[in-house]
Amino acid sequence: MSSALVSMLISRKLGIHSSRSAKKRILYNVLLVTLVVASLVFAQLFVVSMSNGIANKYALLGNGHLQVHEKPGTTIPTHPEIVDVQLVAQTFSLVYSPSKNLMVRLKGVESSYFNEERKQALTFLDPPLDANGSTLPQVLLSTTLANLLGVGQGDRIALMMINNTSLRPQLCIVGNLYDSGYKELDENLMFCDISLMEKLFSTKADTYYEILVANNAIRPVRQFLEGEGLSVTSWDQENYAVATNLETSRQAVLGVMIVVAILCGYFISELSRELIEDDKNRIALLKLLGASNALVRSVYFSTVMIVTLISILLGTALGILLGLNLGSMLSWLALRSIPALSFYLLDFPVTIPLLDIAKIVLVLVLVSALSVVWSIRRVRKIPLLQSTRFD
Amino acid sequence: MMKSNEVLSLQGVGKSFPATARGGEPIEILDSINLSLFSATSVAITGKSGSGKSTMLQISAGLLSPQRGKVLFSGQDLTALGDDKLSTIRSRSMGFIFQSSLLLDDFTALENVAVPAMIAGIPQRVAKKRAKKLLESVGLGDRLDHKSDQLSGGERQRVAIARALVNDPLILFADEPTGSLDERNAELIENMLFAMVAEKEVALMLITHNKAFALRCDRVYNLHNRSLEVVQ
């Protein structure tokens, strides 16, 4: 088989040195596949980034990446990937405002809890109240919870204290408001000083260490801590329903993407079918001149696969480019306060899910290759005498 | 048995087609056709339209299979060969010229002539060199880079002749090669064809309505009532 001839025929099919209509047709197909692939990549990037963003919020504000369930005063061994260790006390409590009462998750934290990493995951809406301005203990509420309770900064709320012997309310003042951007988490999370927790709830509060790790090194750090004889859980165990939902959503979306990729493969096979159908006379002429079916098939296979690969590369690049600009688009949406989006996280760092993108691309390439192989079988059926039917 | 310089031998060839696409009583086109063609000789097949001339050429070139008989090409029975083997024989040993020049319209004249050589596995550089030489010999040395739509009907047919000869075939099949040309161009092509046959010592099977053109061949047959009648 002459590779030079195959290259020559492919370059003509691709529109190089060819007519304007041939170039237009190829460009149209490249554009179509590029847009489909870009949409797939963008959608996957959006879903994965949002899932990671939600998981990150839960890890940073909810429970930490890892939790060490040991008594206060336990020494947590150092590890290069451990970036923060905080002693935390938490309980569930009824909170009363002048107009409403709600069950909330109350976390007692030390003043160092809101480090730079955590501060990046939320926005404090007001400067905090002067600590000396009131004798009442201060609590930190989310804007979502404050709206539900109908209170604002400086307002008073009551926490129902439960200890071994009694049940009584404790008046507190809303010291500040925060917004993590994720209402599901915000609507029942409240912070106070850990000393208040010890005072109000004593043994009823669950005390543990929250650990933040770097570089997604949850598993090795957990193994290290367990190796040191500590009792450790991870954020996904503590928030099992959320973690499972996120993973299921991610897998479901990836599944849908793969189905769309298969449909895209079908479209690509249609492209090869059209090319062959339009070129029946040319194919018959080449066969008349002695070209084997294999040579003709290789030309059409290569042409369609080159178009597919170029489109996939362009689509992937475009999808990633759009994804990287997702932040500004979401910020714009967040500012609009669209009710339909109120339960979505609109502020998260964009991560490129290379493995998922690779899966989509691989499925596209495989499906395209198989469908093209299937559709170019028809080359064999084109009669040699087709070319002489011009007469 | 084939004689030493016998290129093509049709032995008792018969062909019929169904009367309609859905079948029906078959229509007999050719019956017990016997014909031998030797290198450096030419044979013309004449006959009325629909008499089966083109069908006979297509069977001779292995483009169609007969229902009966054998088609021996250089001693090989074409009716017993598979697609790939037939492709190889067509590529290396046969040349085709049709009424319509059948050029690849997005290829230049040079590329059109080089394509069969490249199909036969000849390196591109050599194929183009050979194509250039042939195009010069048919008077198209200044038209090498012209595409099909930039050539006149006569020029396109000359490109087709050059293309048919690029692999030094044993036989040329020409089906009404001057059918769509004006008188002057037709004569030019006729002269060129016979000159090439003599020069390259190729066998020529010519299908034509043109009596004068046919009579320039060594032998002339008229296809009538499914059989060949000797004219010359």
Strand share of the residues of chain B?
A: 25-35%
**Radius of gyration computed on alpha carbons of chain A:** 31 Å
- When the domains of chain B are counted, the total is 1
Q: Between the first and last Cα atoms of chain B, what is the distance in angstroms?
A: 25 Å
| DSSP E strands of chain A, number | 10
Q: What is the structural class of chain A?
A: alpha+beta
Strand order of the largest sheet of chain B: 6-7-8-3-9-10
For the largest beta-sheet of chain A, the strand count, sense and barrel status come to: 6 strands, mixed, barrel
General form of chain A: elongated
- Secondary-structure content class of chain B: alpha/beta
Helical content of chain B stands at 25-40%
Sheet with the most strands of chain B?
6 strands, mixed
H/E element sequence of chain B = EEEHEEHEHHHEHEHEE
What quaternary form is this? heterodimer
Helix percentage range of chain A: 40-55%
CATH-wise, what's the superfamily of chain B?
P-loop containing nucleotide triphosphate hydrolases
What's the total number of strands of chain B?
Answer: 10
How much is the radius of gyration of chain B in Å?
18 Å
Written overview of the protein:
Chain A has 13 helices and ten strands. Helices cover 53% and strands 18% of the residues of chain A. Chain A has helices spanning 3-13, 20-63, 116-121, 143-149, 183-186, 194-201, 218-227, 235-238, 240-278, 280-288, 293-324, 326-336, 354-375, and strands at residues 66-68, 82-96, 101-109, 123-124, 138-142, 156-162, 167-179, 189-193, 206-213, 232-234. Chain A has 391 residues and is of the alpha+beta class. Chain B is an alpha/beta fold. Chain B has helices at 53-60, 83-93, 109-119, 124-137, 153-165, 183-200, 211-215, and strands spanning 6-17, 27-38, 42-46, 68-73, 76-77, 94-98, 171-175, 203-207, 219-224, 227-230. In chain B, the strands form two sheets. In chain B, strands 6-7-8-3-9-10 form a six-stranded mixed beta sheet. Chain B has a four-stranded antiparallel beta sheet with strand order 2-1-4-5, covered by helices on one side. Chain B is globular. Chain B starts with 5 loop residues before the first strand and ends with a strand. Chains A and B meet through helix 1, helix 10 and helix 11 of A and helix 2, strand 6 and helix 3 of B.
